[in-house]
Write a structure and sequence with these properties.
2 helices, mainly alpha
Length: about 70
């Protein structure tokens, strides 16, 4: 029984593999495909970066805190 379950799981794992067609490759780098924060969190992070220049380690623009980035 264990052997059957293992073979079944391997079969399911292998059958789920797909090759990407040439015309679908343009969508791989689409921003909607990224595993990032939700849109509202990205907006809040962008707002915080421009508003609070002291916030670091988020890859955004930094400045002196006076809003003159």
């Amino acid at each position: 029984m264990k052997k059957f379950i293992i073979v079944f799981l391997i079969f399911i794992g292998v059958s789920s593999c797909n090759s990407v067609k040439e015309y679908d490759k343009q969508y791989i780098n689409d921003p909607d495909m990224k595993l990032s924060a939700r849109a509202s969190e990205r907006y809040e992070t962008t707002f915080q970066v421009y508003r609070e220049a002291a916030s670091g380690a988020n890859g955004g623009k930094t400045g002196g805190g006076c809003g003159c980035n």
